[in-house]
């Protein structure tokens, strides 16, 4: 798939993104460019600013330094739901389903608010089929297993017909086989044209999946390139893999 | 627990469906032939319940006496009443029920203006003769010609209410030149303050402080200090029980001793208040409706109070019964006397009789004016004298709440300034 | 002295004393609402329940109200533990604290208020210790012992509480439970046990504040309604989880109320105080002393 | 009598299936038929008391349905129901005093003013955690109370009188007229609440109640939905209050801002079952009927005590309210 990406237009452009909490600098001077359909892995130790970056992009933090643009449109100042409708979907570290709604209803919500409310039920079923959850449509989220909850999150993201999906540790706590299932789903989604940013601690998954790897350490980007090259960099090994 | 609730629920729903079953006072009489049923709502819980319960006790004493005498018009008397919870929203419903479901012969009012007003439209709709208790100018708006109000304030509260207070002020050793007015935000106190303003202006007193306060006020120290710093000669306060105590406390703590202090405070009339404050009340000059002074020893009032006091503790009401109870009893006497003259339950005839006749009750003789208020207002201003402690016995005898105004009931001399002797 | 200045000075002093009472009343709430995230709107009602119990016991035994308040505090601690256990069992555990839990405390508030009316009648109750009628005079400033003595108790109790929260292991754990219950679990501390203890303390504080209230003024079953808006306002202004912030906000609230009452007239003081809160919620929701998010 | 008549009827509409299309016409026809049936039944009974009991309960149907739109659907607890209701009541009084316009225009104006108030409060606080909104509404009631008390034009603390006509032509009495007005308002309010619940807005509110952040992330405009709900909730609460001065002929701040309204607005939906339109209706009929019955039977503070216990027991043991019993576990 890499042959298409060279020519693909820029989808996400982050310029000098930074975020401070009081006096603490969580994130500083992040520049990242992502092309349409690209698969980017974002890694870094705990507290390196990965989730902070995601929250700046998704709009969960209303104020931050720098600019973020999706397909040429500036996102700064837009609320998360506006960004969502522009084609930016995300999943959460801990699955965040709508607890009082059935699985099907969960997936109908984004459809109802993305313009075409017509035939929302049928389209929601379609999304559930894509993540192989159609059989669980009538269940409540609390009746699902963990991997099923992850799938539900993905189905809800798929329902938004996103141009970019940010998967924030979508595989944490899953078994080897389950990780593979989720990876398959993500690849399928990517094949359909959605760019994916994967934030992950499971190195196997992230190196297997990504075309490109970005490394954060202490709120700064220290590397950006093909996975094998990036992982070979001494500073990455040093900082991230914790060489004594 | 759960099933109990459901069962209760069913029982109450049944209660609503049966409806007619009254929470009457004297079940014994409910069986007897054709009683005269007197219906009313009364504040037995909520903010006005203190006076509401005392009123009910007075009614019950009257009903027991009337029945012992063989009833009214030869028929036993039965009281049919519901608790209005001091919630005006419940009042119209209760009165409709009294008149349309319970089909009482006579309706009387709940206690005080805020509860009386919502009962008026319903009562007027059915053209019932309506004797109310301690309303304040309710009929100024409704202009209902079958409305009669048992309250000494009379027709023109603005011009008459505070007159006595300022008459007394005129007798101060040094003629007063300035006045301060403080009143709680409620209808009675505001009318009282309006009257005080009127009289202060008429007598050329400069009003140096004139403000209202909300009923939720916690600390009165800053307010009383602001009054103190304005240096008024005469202080007129319109307040309700919780605030009255806060104001008196603050005045005592700040050693605020103006020549005259008091006015239209509600609270110092009540036994619990007198027990708590004891000597702090000394030289307070306050509006009142009754004091056991020789000038007010109307026939029957002593007997009534004796009966009342034997039952008050058990009923958890005011121990002395010096405030509302005699008037509540007299309210029933008005009905009794009018019924006796008319000879039948005829609302129009009763109203006509009440307009025409003079009544002789345990609170004295009086007539009603065209609008149904007392034709001659009788606002008392009493001064607390010789109070050394919180013991209540002295309030049963003359000499503690000395009447200074009006002139015809006067029973003692003014002492000034306000505050404990020697302060 | 200039009379206006004197008024202002006295307004400030009486406001500080009043604020001390508010701080006492609000500090328990700062624990339950601020630190534990339990929206206990029955807090003022519990305070009044404490006040009534002080009046009844104090009158029967002829004891000083503040002494009774201190003696009975353990009982209210136990009551608080009971309430929290019910709350935890039915609401917190189920994750239904937001709506149902709020309604639960609303119901508790109502049950206490009406229960007091049924038990004691609607009228006000009082129990005046002898010093309630003494006023100190410091220059131009009056300090009634009726206000001062309860404030001293408040200062002592809140001081001890603050010290305990900052130095003891359990106290630190209470502070931590607000931040991160997970971290506690890692430290092998049961957050539920900590919350139960802290909630018990908050109810004991409510009852102590009730004892102070008895000295300040007579109480009625519905007196809590006067405080409910104020204590929540103070808690929010103080930045929720901060006890010193809560105390500072309470003192400020008392001063604003009394200075307004002195100069603009008492009828505007609640509107000024609560309008201030509304404004605050709009522009600085983290509170006067809270950290910016 | 009316209390027993209403209960089974409100249960009549079948519970909606999860994704079944919402049918509006049968509801409106059914509601209208129920309304007419109630009216005819009371007319036949011919007892004025029935109208007052009916009015009492129906005002709570309006109030608790309105509360439920924000509180039940979206999970934002409004403690200031009495404040909004009083806003409606005083708007009707002002309109009457200023222009002489009667009850019906008063209701429209009340909806507008209280709706704006809801919008403003929501705008100030709905960006924050839910509990801030709750406390803001608590304070709002205090501020409004103070304003009314200090506002002489509406009588301040002395209260305002409205001398109502003895009857309004086609109706046998003013009580019947008020009842019919309130009945229409109740049907309208329940209909609106139901339409909201089944609309996209209702689904969005439910989503943000469950998880506000996730709702935003999937494109739900949470703030806008909350503002719509707060406006609607305020407006309908104002509507519930507008006839109050006509009902009692006199209104003072104490009565308008009565605690009972705030308590019942919360207790009724919770006891009936939050989150669905039928819950508050059931809660209002049961609890309102119970209170009215207790007023004329037990007739003491015990009456209110029962409400408190019912609330506590229900939220603890039946968190989904009475409605939860009938729907079973889902």
Automatic annotation (TrEMBL), chain C:
Location relative to the cell: Cell membrane
Pfam families: BPD_transp_2
Main location group: membrane
Record GO biological process: amino acid transport
Membrane-topology annotation of the record: Multi-pass membrane protein
GO molecular function annotations of the record: transmembrane transporter activity
Signal sequence interval, chain numbering: none
Keywords annotated in UniProt: Amino-acid transport, Cell membrane, Membrane, Transmembrane, Transmembrane helix, Transport
GO cellular component: plasma membrane
The keyword Ribonucleoprotein belongs to this UniProt entry's keyword annotation: no
Protein family per UniProt: Belongs to the binding-protein-dependent transport system permease family. LivHM subfamily.
Protein name as it appears in the record: High-affinity branched-chain amino acid transport system permease protein LivH
Organism: uncultured Acetobacteraceae bacterium
């Amino acid at each position: 798939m890499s042959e298409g990406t060279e020519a693909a237009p820029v989808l996400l452009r982050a310029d000098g993104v930074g975020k401070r909490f009081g006096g603490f600098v969580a994130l500083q001077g992040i520049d990242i460019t992502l092309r349409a359909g690209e698969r980017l892995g974002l890694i870094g130790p705990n507290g390196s600013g990965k989730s902070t970056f995601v929250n700046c992009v998704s709009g969960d933090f209303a104020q931050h330094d720098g600019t973020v643009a999706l397909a040429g449109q500036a996102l700064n100042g837009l609320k998360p739901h506006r960004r969502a409708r522009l084609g930016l979907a995300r999943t959460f570290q801990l699955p965040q389903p709508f607890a009082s709604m059935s699985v099907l209803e969960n997936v109908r919500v984004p459809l109802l608010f993305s313009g075409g409310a017509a035939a929302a039920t049928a389209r929601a079923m379609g999304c559930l089929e894509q993540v192989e959850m159609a059989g669980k449509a009538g269940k409540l989220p609390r009746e699902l297993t963990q991997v099923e909850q992850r799938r539900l999150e993905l189905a809800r993201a798929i329902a938004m017909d996103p141009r970019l999906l940010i998967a924030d540790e979508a595989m944490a706590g899953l078994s080897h086989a389950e990780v593979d299932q989720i990876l398959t789903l993500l690849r399928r989604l990517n094949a359909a044209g959605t760019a994916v940013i994967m934030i992950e601690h499971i190195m196997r998954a992230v190196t297997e999946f990504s075309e490109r790897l970005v490394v954060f350490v202490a709120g700064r980007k220290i590397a950006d390139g093909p996975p094998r090259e990036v992982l070979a960099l001494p500073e990455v090994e040093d900082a991230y893999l914790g060489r004594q | 627990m759960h099933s109990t609730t459901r069962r209760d629920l069913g029982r109450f729903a049944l209660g609503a469906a049966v409806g007619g079953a009254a929470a009457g006072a004297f079940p014994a009489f409910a069986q007897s032939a054709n009683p005269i049923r007197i219906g009313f709502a009364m504040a037995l819980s909520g903010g006005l319940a203190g006076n509401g319960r005392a009123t009910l006790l007075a009614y019950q004493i009257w009903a027991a006496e009337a029945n012992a005498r063989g009833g009214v018009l030869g028929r036993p008397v039965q009281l049919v009443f519901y608790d209005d919870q001091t919630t005006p929203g419940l009042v119209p419903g209760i009165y409709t029920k009294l008149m349309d479901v319970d089909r009482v012969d006579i309706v009387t009012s709940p206690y005080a203006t805020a509860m009386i007003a919502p009962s008026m439209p319903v009562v007027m709709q059915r053209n019932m003769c309506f004797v109310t208790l301690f309303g304040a100018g309710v009929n100024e708006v409704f202009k209902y010609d079958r409305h009669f109000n048992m309250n000494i304030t009379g027709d023109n509260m603005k011009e008459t209410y505070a007159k006595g207070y300022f008459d007394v002020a005129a007798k101060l050793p040094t003629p007063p030149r300035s006045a301060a007015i403080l009143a709680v935000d409620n209808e009675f106190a505001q009318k009282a303050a309006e009257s005080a303003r009127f009289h202060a202006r008429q007598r050329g007193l400069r009003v140096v402080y004139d403000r209202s306060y909300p009923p939720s006020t916690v600390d009165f120290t800053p307010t009383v200090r602001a009054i103190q710093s304005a240096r008024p000669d005469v202080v007129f306060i319109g307040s309700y029980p919780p605030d009255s105590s806060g104001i008196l406390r603050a005045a005592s703590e700040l050693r605020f001793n103006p020549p005259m202090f008091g006015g239209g405070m509600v609270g110092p009339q009540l036994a619990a208040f007198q027990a708590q404050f004891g000597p702090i009340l000394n030289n307070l000059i306050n509006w009142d409706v009754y004091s056991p002074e020789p000038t007010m020893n109307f026939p029957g009032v002593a007997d009534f109070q004796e009966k009342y006091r034997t039952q008050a503790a058990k009923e958890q009401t005011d121990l002395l019964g010096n405030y509302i109870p005699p008037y509540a009893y007299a309210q029933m006497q008005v009905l009794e006397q009018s019924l006796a003259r008319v000879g039948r339950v005829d609302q129009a005839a009763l109203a006509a009789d009440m307009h025409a006749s003079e009544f002789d009750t345990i609170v004295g003789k009086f007539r009603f004016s065209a609008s149904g208020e007392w034709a001659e207002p009788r606002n008392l201003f009493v001064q607390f004298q010789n109070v050394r402690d919180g013991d209540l016995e002295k309030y049963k005898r003359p000499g503690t709440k000395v009447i200074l105004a009006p002139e015809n009931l006067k029973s003692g001399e003014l002492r000034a300034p306000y505050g404990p002797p020697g302060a | 002295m200039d009379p206006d200045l004197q008024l202002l000075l006295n307004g400030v002093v009486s406001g500080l004393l009043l604020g001390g009472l508010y701080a006492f009343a609000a500090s328990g709430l700062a624990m339950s609402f601020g630190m534990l995230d339990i929206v206990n709107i029955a807090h003022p009602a519990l305070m009044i329940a404490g006040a009534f119990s002080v009046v009844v016991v104090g009158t029967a035994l002829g004891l000083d109200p503040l002494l009774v308040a201190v003696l009975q505090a353990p009982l209210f601690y136990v009551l608080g533990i009971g309430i929290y256990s019910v709350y935890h069992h039915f609401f917190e555990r189920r994750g239904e604290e937001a709506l149902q839990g709020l309604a639960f405390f609303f119901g508790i508030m109502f049950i206490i208020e009406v229960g007091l009316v049924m038990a004691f009648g609607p009228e006000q109750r009082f129990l005046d210790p002898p010093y309630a009628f003494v006023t100190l005079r410091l220059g131009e400033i009056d300090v009634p012992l009726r206000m001062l003595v309860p404030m001293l108790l408040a200062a002592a109790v809140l001081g001890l509480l603050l010290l305990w929260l900052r130095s003891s292991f359990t106290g630190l754990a209470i502070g931590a439970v607000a931040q991160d219950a997970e971290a506690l679990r890692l430290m092998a501390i049961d957050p539920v046990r900590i919350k139960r203890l802290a909630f018990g303390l908050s109810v004991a504080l409510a009852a102590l504040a009730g004892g102070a209230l008895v000295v300040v003024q007579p109480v009625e079953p519905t007196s809590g309604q006067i405080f409910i808006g104020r204590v929540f306002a103070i808690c929010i202004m103080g930045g929720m989880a901060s006890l010193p912030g809560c105390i500072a906000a309470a003192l400020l609230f008392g001063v604003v109320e009394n200075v307004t009452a002195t100069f603009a007239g008492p009828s505007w003081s609640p509107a000024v105080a609560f309008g201030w809160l509304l404004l605050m919620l709009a522009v600085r929701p983290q509170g006067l002393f809270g950290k910016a998010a | 009598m009316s209390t027993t008549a209403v209960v089974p009827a409100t249960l009549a509409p079948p519970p909606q299936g999860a994704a079944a299309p919402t049918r509006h016409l049968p509801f409106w026809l059914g509601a209208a038929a129920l309304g007419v049936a109630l009216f005819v039944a009371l007319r036949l009974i011919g007892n004025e008391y029935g109208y007052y009991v009916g009015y009492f309960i129906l005002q709570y149907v309006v109030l608790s349905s309105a509360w439920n739109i924000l509180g039940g659907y979206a999970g934002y607890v409004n403690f200031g129901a009495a404040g909004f209701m009083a806003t409606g009541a005083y708007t009707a009084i002002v309109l009457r005093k200023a222009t002489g316009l009667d009850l019906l225009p008063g209701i429209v104006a009340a909806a507008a003013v209280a709706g704006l108030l809801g919008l403003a409060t929501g705008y100030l606080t709905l960006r924050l955690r839910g509990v801030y909104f709750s406390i803001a509404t608590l304070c709002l009631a205090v501020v409004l109370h103070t304003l009314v008390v200090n506002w002489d034009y509406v009588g301040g603390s002395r209260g305002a009188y409205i001398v109502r006509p003895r009857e309004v032509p086609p109706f046998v009495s003013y009580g019947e007229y008020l009842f019919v007005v309130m009945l229409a308002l109740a049907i309208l309010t329940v209909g609106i609440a139901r339409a909201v619940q089944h609309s996209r807005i209702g689904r969005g509110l439910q989503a943000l109640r469950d998880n506000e952040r996730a709702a935003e992330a999937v494109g739900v405009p949470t703030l806008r939905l909350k503002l719509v709900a707060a406006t609607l909730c305020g407006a309908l609460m104002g509507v519930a209050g507008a006839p109050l001065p006509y009902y009692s002929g006199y209104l003072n701040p104490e009565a308008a801002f009565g605690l009972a309204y705030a308590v019942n607005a919360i207790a009724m939906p919770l006891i009936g079952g939050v989150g669905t339109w039928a819950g508050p209706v059931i809660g209002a009929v049961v609890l309102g009927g119970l209170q009215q019955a207790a007023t004329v039977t037990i007739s003491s503070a015990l009456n209110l005590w029962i409400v408190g216990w019912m609330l506590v027991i229900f939220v603890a043991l039946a968190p989904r309210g009475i409605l939860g019993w009938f729907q079973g576990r889902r």
